[in-house]
Amino acid sequence: MNYESKIASELGVRPHQVQATIELLDGGATVPFISRYRKEVTGTLDEVQVATIRDRIEQLRELDKRREAILKSIEEQGKLTPELKKSIEGAETMAKLEDIYLPYKPKRRTKATIAREKGLEPLAELIFAQNSIDLEAEAEKYFSPEKEVNSIEEALQGARDIIAEWINENAPLREKMRKLFWEEGIFTSRVIPGKEIEAIKYKDYFDWSEPIKTAPSHRVLAMRRGEKELFLMLDSCPDEASSLSIMEREILQGFANSSADQVKLAIKDCYRRLLKPSMETEIRLMTKKKADEEAIRVFAENLRQLLLGAPLGEKSVMAIDPGFRTGCKLVCLGPQGQLMHYEAIFPHEPQRQTAAAGMTIKGLVERFKIQAIAIGNGTAGRETEAFVKGLGLPKSIIITMVNESGASIYSASEVARNEFPDLDLTVRGAVSIGRRLMDPLAELVKIDPKSIGVGQYQHDVDQNALKNSLDDTVMSAVNGVGVEVNTASKELLTYVSGLGPVLAQNIVDYRMENGPFSSRAQLKKVPRLGEKAYEQAAGFLRIRNAKHPLDSSAVHPERYDLVEKMAKDLKASVQDLMSSEELRNQIILKNYVSETVGLPTLQDILEELAKPGRDPRESFEVFQFQEGVNSMADLKVGMKLPGIVTNITAFGAFVDIGVHQDGLVHLSHLADRFVKDPNEVVSVAQKVQVTVMEVDIQRKRIGLSMKADPFAERVRDSKPRTTHNSAAKPNKAEEPGGSMADKLAILKKQFGK
């Protein structure tokens, strides 16, 4: 089936753009390659649009596969009519397709099956017609001790079972009920009696109701988790009276007689026993998918921001993985991240070898010409930072804290074991901390994205969908920045367009056997790296100081001849074009437009000539936490502190303020204006100023605000509202554990604000 027009309509683009993109994808092209180097073919579709087309065509093709299987099944049963075939071919969603197939779907032995075996289907047909009949006399005809029909009621019950199944298999009715469940359904959450103490973190959901249609992702996933952990009971249905009313309008013919009464009973039985459980399952799957998509979107955006964090660059770095009892693991790294030295120092309690530790650091700084010191932000991090800063090191040396989330995952990974088989886990962790400062992207790709700690409910969402989204995000970030082929790890190369693990390893092996690559063309000598892989990968790979100047840029080798023609027309060299703005300004782009190259590609080339191989990431800036504020005990309400955003969720942002416990800036406190999406205001790794609103040491919770004057507003009623009104907004702040309104109310009572 041709889906180009359908997808084009959904995306608001032209069908030929979709068709061209699908052809490229089917030919093995990657999303980054298509969006970067095939702009004329797709009509300048961006990465998001290309990825959406890829995912949508996969969905529609899966729908077609199911359609074919259903047609084959019904045909084999000898029941495929032209009308039925037309209905199946016209179904545009999997739900509609399955509704049509339901009457023909092989079934387990049901109540209706048993009733049919007892010969009660003719009675069911008679009753379902809803004509005036002598019901008892008709039912009496079906008495049959050998078929276990021993009374009028047993005969009528069997007939109702068959009618209930017919009603359940009514496709138009199912569609109306599906809409009702979505439009008017209510999530109702209750605590399981006797588990109030165990389930305290789900306190907000002990007696909670809200419309299914508007329930945000984080609350849906929180309630489902509470149900899974056997702390909550969760229901997701509309009002039963509304449901039965729709069913009766659809099924009853308006007659007032005993047959209609029986059909009414069958309708109620159908709803409670068949249709309601089926619809509830569908709705729960639908809302779960919707919640998953939102949670995955948030996770992917956070990951992108973290991956694209500002790199320090190629510097000699000392990295310290702090600790008290076991000491601080210290490593010295060369400009390419190579390990030069490692040892342990013990500047803190209980050993408190302060003088020796200080002498060690000073000696290593001088010996290895250290330009920056990276200190992990875990246990003893702030104390170690204060110690190092107190050593009187040269002011030119950067001393900064580094988020070590995921470093322990890396240190125990196969990647780390292969690189440092003889080193302790903590030494490997220190290496990761140092390299993360130098180039966050190159180091973080070695860690499973799920372990980086920038998502919400990542263990509750669809794991395949999460992996695919995060892999897309990493690939986009890696190819957006570009990769230096002579220094990149296998893990980094794996995410380059067209490569993957096998070719990445082959590149590393070839590099080790033959020395550094001197040109992009040399990549063709790598085993199994054919023309297609070269086409997809070459533009994203950089070779510094290569013979051909464009090998260090994002200009694709397929356009080298074009750039050389530009240079020749100006009686200059390619290198001249790259170094002279005056020459570049003389290039008349329209003179180089052809059937395969348009202005979008030409403009990209001109930008690359101006800044070849430029890093799109921001420049590194040193950040410092507030001195003297090292633990939650040091916090006071009203304090204004510098912090770094570590995670963004649907309900706000978490900020590291240097006390080993991130604080929450709720959505309502991200700005002095209304904020719908936290990403409008903050990004992961962003440096912010926050005000302390609440400190709960026992529960390890810190409430923060980014408002100019967070205590100025009037606090509303702090009691969380439970509502069935779809227009009402629940007064909730975060995942289970208390609302910001609750916290503000308490604070203002205490401090008279």
Question: Which features does this protein show?
Answer:
30 helices, 753 residues, Tex-like_central_region, Tex-like_N, mRNA binding, Arc Repressor Mutant, subunit A, alpha/beta, Nucleotidyltransferase, domain 5, Tex N-terminal region-like, five-stranded mixed barrel, S1 motif domain-containing protein, structural constituent of ribosome, five-stranded mixed sheet
What can you see in these coordinates?
The protein is an alpha/beta fold and 753 residues long. Among the domains are: 4-77, RuvA domain 2-like (Arc Repressor Mutant, subunit A, Orthogonal Bundle); 111-301, Orthogonal Bundle (Tex N-terminal region-like); 320-438, YqgF/RNase H-like domain (Nucleotidyltransferase, domain 5, 2-Layer Sandwich); 632-751, OB fold (Dihydrolipoamide Acetyltransferase, E2P) (Beta Barrel). It has 30 helices and 15 strands. It has a five-stranded mixed β-sheet, with helices on both faces. Strands 11-12-13-15-14 form a five-stranded mixed beta barrel. A three-stranded antiparallel β-sheet has the order 2-1-3. Helix 15 (258-307) runs parallel beside helix 22. The chain is globular. Mean pLDDT is 90; it is low at 714-753.
In what range is the share of β-strand residues?
A: 5-15%
> What is the mean predicted local confidence, pLDDT?
90
Distance between the termini: 65 Å
**Low-confidence runs:** 714-753
Figure out the total of helices: 30
Rg over CA atoms, rounded to whole Å, is 33 Å
* Backbone structural class: alpha/beta
Report the CATH architecture of the domain at 111-301. Orthogonal Bundle
The major β-sheet equals: 5 strands, mixed
Q: Helicity level, as a percent range?
A: 40-55%
Global geometry = globular
